[in-house]
Amino acid sequence: MYILLMNTISSTQARQNWADTIEAARIEPVTITDHGRKTVTIMDAELAKLALQVLEDSRDIEVAEKRMAAIRNGEPTYTTEELAAELGLDLDEI
Q1: Which of 3, 31, 68, 72 has CB atoms 3.0–4.6 Å from 8's, for a disulfide?
Q2: What share of the chain in percent tops pLDDT 90?
Q3: Which H or E run contains 15?
Q4: Is the domain 7-43 a CATH 3.40.50 member?
Q5: Is-contact 25 44, C-beta < 8 A?
């Protein structure tokens, strides 16, 4: 499990100490600033993959919840067969 504390360093520091910056990012995310403004964050590849998956999952859940609410509010639903017919697909060929 990661503790998401973020080191913040300037782009000049990151450039001058690139190997140290990479090593620090393996331990915890490092945010790099440019002229005092946060511009990028680097982090361990596995953490980034996990974070992106969690973000995608949360968006999928949000869409599903909206669709379920729409159905509860009376929006029509369609069977797979009806959808296939509308799209001109033959379910036996899929």
Answers
A1: 31
A2: 89
A3: helix 11-16
A4: no
A5: yes
